[in-house]
Amino acid sequence: MPCIGTRKCGAAAPNPPEPASLPPDFRNPFVNDPRPVSALTIAGSDSGGGAGIQADLKTFAAHGVHGLSAIAALTAQHTRGVTAVHVPEIGFLRAQLDACFEDFRIGAVKIGMLASAGVIDAVADALERHRPPFVVLDPVMVATSGAKLLQDDALHALRTRLVPLASIITPNIPEAELLTGMRILDAAAADRAILSLRRMGSPAVLLKGGHLDEGECVIDRYDDGHADATFMHDRLPVEGHGTGCTLASAIAANLCRGMAMPAAVEAATDYIERALRGGYRPGRGDVVVLDHFGASALRTA
Question: Domain Pyridoxamine kinase/Phosphomethylpyrimidine kinase, which positions (predicted)?
Fold first, then answer.
């Protein structure tokens, strides 16, 4: 397969490329439709503003895309941790999803942490009913501390109901290990895990390499069955908060702007590096919140 792009560590993160024209299969659902394309995030709310729904909506706005949200969970958290979690009743989540799909022209859906098998089923039902052009699945399953966030029945539902509906899945190493049941300790194991994830039904996989010890670089690996790529970035000495949420949302926003999947992924990985380099500490904790707007291509254009 051709390699669609690599970048060496130490090289400056470039501005994202201009969006390509919309491919026919993406344009068809919206023929003669004057509404702007919107991106929908289905995830949890972060009261600290660094991750989850808040990070997703900031990312959409930074990319010039109208953002919609369906809140699957609410968290009380700050820069030092999570203090409480509330999961709204599933009927209210379904109402949010119906409201978004019934009125807006949704070009891409980004999915974050879903707390239970019932929540996953509700989201999968909506996706099967409305069939949005793109679904970006960030399978949030492992906390920063390493704790597993999903029960076994939820993990099974994620594998069997959501992964097959995804256009791309963006796990980190611990999440990929849970999904595949494999240990991922080196590049060869990472490649095998990507193949296993694609066999679950997702056409494209971006395996985030921050948990692998590969020297001074973080290497993210992309494969869609037609093209593959490695995206190399400097390993920065900071603990970023909301990087996975922001990356998946940036991919979704780029798809809404008309980029092809490989270009959307590459632009999103570069956006994350710029946002992390410009990050700041708004609270008393050590975590860095990303500079979503300072990293925007709209600002640097």
Answer: 46-287
